[in-house]
Structure formats: C-alpha cells, structure tokens
Specification:
By secondary structure, the protein is mainly alpha-helical. The protein is built from 19 helices and no strands.
C-alpha cells in the first residue's frame, strides 16, 4: 500500500502532527488568559473532541515513524530531513502541548528582566500588572512558587524572548518555540557530525517523543542535548576547547549536561602523551573552560550563582516514573517518611558509581565515548529522584548518535519512545490511563516486532 511507503509515511506523519496541533487548540496546555483570544478554553465538549483528535494524531505519527524506521532498516533510501520538516512543521504555530513548562520559562525570563531573584522565588511573585503576568498565572500548580532549577544561559534566552515580545503571551510562546527549533537543528547537526546516518536521525530527531516534547512542549532539554552533543562532536574532532565551551553552555541550561564534560575529559586525556600529563590535561582543561563559561554566564545574566542551590528542587516533586522515589515512598509507608530521601540519595550514589565505571572503560578504550555518554545519561535518568518521559531523550539521542547499537538495544529504545509519548496528555497532565496506554503500547509493539529489524552496527568513534 502507498501509505506504508516512505512518501506515504511522510504524509501520514504530517497528518498526525496536524491532528496534534489542531486538537491542541482545544485540549492543549492552554493559558489561563490569552490577550489575543487565540488559545482560550472552548468548553468541555470541544476539549474532549480536541483530546480525541490529538490522541489520534499522535497515534498516526507513531505509526508513521515506526513504519518509516522499518523501511530505513531495510536499506531504503529517503530524504530523512525532508520528512523531519514535514512532521515538525504543523507544531510550529500550535499552542503549547503536553506541558505547561513554557509558561514557567517566560515568567522566569520576565523575573530576570524585572530584577527578581529567580533562584529565591517562583513566578508567583509577578503581580497582575507585571511583565509576564499572564504566563505566571498559567504556570502549573507546584511550580508556581518553585525557584528556577535552570542555569543562567537559558534564563538569558528567556529574558531576551520576553524583552523582544513585551511578555505578550502568544508571541513569547512562539519565541520560545524558535529556540526549540534551533535546538532541533543543533541535534541534527551533532548527530550527523558524529557519523549518524538516516537511522540515527530517525531515532534521535524524528522520534515522536522529541517532536511532541521539544517542538510541541518546548522543553529546554532539547537545547541542553543539542549543545551537549555539539560539544562532544567538536571534542571528537580535536577542537576540545570550543567543545568544552558548548558543554559549559549546556550545563548552564540544565545541569545533567555535566556528565558530558566527563567524557570530553576522557577524549582529551586519551589523545597521546604520558599518562599522568594526559590525565591532568583531560581533567583540568575542559573543567577550567566550562567553569569559566559558568562564571561568565552567571555574571552576564545578573542572577549570580544561585543556580547552585536550586539543583535539588525538582527532587521534592514526586513523579511516578522515578523508581527510587516510588521505592522510597513505599518504604516510607513501612518505616517512616525519612526513607524516601535516603533511597533517592542511594540511587544518585549508585548512578555516580556506574557513570564512573563507564568513564573508566571509555578511558581504557573498551567503550566508544559517545556511547558511554548515552549509557551514563540513561543510568542517571533511571536512578534520578525525578523522571519525566522526555528525560529518556538525554541518553537516547546520544546513543543514536553513537550508531553502535545492537538490534536489540535499538529496538528497546524505539519501543520505549513509542510508549512514553502516551504517558502525558495533551493538556500536560499525567492521567492514569496514560500509564495504561504506555504499558499496552510497550507490550504489544515490543512483542509483535521483536527480532524483525536487522540493524548493522557501524564502526565506533575513536577518542
């Protein structure tokens, strides 16, 4: 059938994205107030109809993506970047979908512009007549009074968007989406530069999990990933100073990018010379460059170094995808409330140990640096006290860029990507049926397609 050809998948995926965008007009994460009247609630019947349309669109996009990946796995040639453009385009002018985080970004940008301390207070400090007030009123529940967990580089970008748009809601949201599209372009550049071909781009950039949460939801994780992988790419090419600058910028968006700095250090250290000198050069060089970037960004943003004390604020918010938080909560019912933070800290300690072991194997030349980065980031996510579906992209994009997976590992990543898109509703909420849908998709797709895709692992990158 034509619809299952490469060009058919392109049309089918675009139709799915369009369904998400149109459905989002009624069922997306709409603001409390929109001065332009474009993104306003349209009644319960319209909301239900919009949600159904968005879910149908999402399913079409996932089906098109899956079939497209199967065609690429069989060696069919196609214009992957053209397909990416078709699938992303309908989301460009859509309202925020699957997350209200963009309202926090805009409100925090307004706080920086107005001289508020974003690391001491949340968007609730913005009053009715203040710049960014509409965005602040639309911030999701517990985040209203939560200080910013983001670095000053991202806050500078948010500040620039608020300044350019005057804080008016729709233009400010679209300004943040431009940043998300820039992040997508960075990811494509880095994946291709690291040797990733069409199949790598399929898993990294065409991934529905990335499209709905980075383009649709405008999560700054996309920018962190793009800068982080760009820095690793430059380090692999021998330009480790500039690479460390990019990784430093990524850390100043979201702190988990610091894991990449470790692997940049390994890449630098393995480039010849006496072992002791190489280790010193690898550890001190990238570290000093990234520290300089952090200091400069903190001063330039006028926010100081308050970001150092807010990195743990997200851990106080329970998310069902966090294994350590779930285990800690369960133990807390038996032995007391103090069990949860202990289990969370043990999880982080275990993640650090695994990351250290992976870095050591990379230093010994037993593991590709980019693949080691991906494994480390997935480990960090798995043992983190707070886990959101899009966090899975941190390591998945890096591993796709490494292009060194076995068929089974690639299949697992694809199945999880297809399943996790259903965990969050278009409204940004996480209803119980989202978890059920994710589990059903993972089970059915995983079992029915296991062993059907024959991936050939290209040569690993050399450090």
């Amino acid at each position: 059938m034509w619809v299952w050809s490469a060009s058919g998948c392109r049309w089918l995926g675009a139709a799915g994205s369009l369904g998400i965008a149109v459905g989002g007009l009624a069922a997306g994460t709409l603001p409390v107030r929109d001065p332009w009247g474009l993104w306003e609630p349209r009644g319960s019947l319209a909301t239900v109809a919009g949600a159904v349309l968005a879910y149908l669109g999402l399913t079409l996009l996932v089906a098109a993506w899956w079939r497209y990946g199967a065609l690429l796995a069989r060696g069919e040639r196609d214009r992957v970047l053209v397909t990416l453009g078709w699938w992303a385009a309908p989301l460009v002018l859509a309202p925020p979908v699957y997350s209200a985080d963009v309202y926090s970004y805009i409100a925090q940008g307004a706080m920086v512009l107005e001289g508020h301390d974003v690391y001491a207070a949340g968007p609730s400090v913005l009053g009715p007549g203040d710049l960014g007030a509409d965005a602040a009123d639309s911030v999701g529940g517990h985040w209203t009074s939560t200080p910013a967990p983001y670095g000053p580089v991202f806050l500078l970008l948010a500040k620039a968007v608020v300044w350019a748009t005057g804080g008016t809601l729709v233009p400010a949201v679209l300004g943040m989406r431009l940043i998300a599209l820039g992040a997508l372009a960075l990811i494509v550049w880095a994946v291709r530069g690291l040797g990733g071909g069409p199949r790598a781009l399929w898993l990294a950039a065409l991934n529905p999990l990335l499209l709905i949460h980075v383009v649709g939801g405008m999560h700054n994780d996309g920018l962190m990933i793009g800068l982080m992988l760009g820095g690793v790419l430059l380090a692999v090419r021998g330009r480790w100073v500039l690479g460390s600058v990019l990784v430093g910028l990524a850390i100043m968006v979201k702190s988990p990018a610091a894991v990449a700095l470790l692997f940049v250090a390994v890449i630098v250290a393995r480039r010849g010379g006496p072992v002791r000198g190489a280790l010193v050069r690898g550890v001190l060089g990238p570290g000093l460059v990234a520290a300089s970037v952090a200091a400069a960004a903190s001063v330039a943003a006028g926010t100081g170094f308050g970001w150092l004390r807010t990195q743990g604020v997200a851990g106080s918010i329970h998310t069902a995808l966090s294994v350590t938080s779930d285990v800690g909560l369960g133990l807390g019912l038996l032995v007391g409330e103090g069990a949860k933070p202990v289990v969370q800290q043990l999880g982080l300690a275990a993640a650090v140990a695994v990351i250290g072991w992976v870095a050591w194997r990379t230093w010994q030349g037993r593991l590709d640096p980019v693949r080691g980065l991906g494994v480390s980031l997935l480990t960090l996510v798995a043992l983190s006290p707070m886990v959101q579906p899009w966090y899975f992209l941190w390591g998945t994009v890096a591993l796709a860029a490494a292009s060194a997976w076995s068929g089974r590992a690639w299949h697992v990543a694809a199945v999880l990507s297809a399943a996790l898109v259903y965990e969050t509703a278009p409204s940004g909420h996480t209803p119980w049926y989202g978890f059920v849908a994710a589990a059903v998709v993972a089970g059915v797709v995983g079992v029915r397609t296991a062993g059907r895709w024959g991936y050939r692992a290209p040569a690993a990158h050399t450090a």
